[in-house]
Amino acid sequence: MRADNLAREIGAELCSAGAGEMAEIERVYAGDRMSDLLHEVDDHTLLVTNLAHRVLIRPIELVDVAGICLLNGATADPELVAAAAEHGAVVMVSPDGMYETCGRLYAALEGRKAGESRR
Is the full-model pTM beyond 0.85? Predict the structure, then answer.
């Protein structure tokens, strides 16, 4: 599912514009340990994390992650948003916590696979 459509589906705010909005999201990885994040992501992964600072620039640079979803209405660091735009990734912010956000992401992505419409 395209990142911009996925953000809209889960009620997240897009913080970055450009090519990242067109990125295809096929899987989600949720976590907060940087070593796990770097190990689990690829160019079709949306990273869901409570981290909301510049340290997230590394996954964008190293593994071409498709996007990052911050939680609990966090404010995205401007350097993170700039790095995402430079590397064609999207940054979105969910108003909800990890559990709710992951549930919505699962429903949106699994609904797409099953051909079901959501909402």
Answer: yes
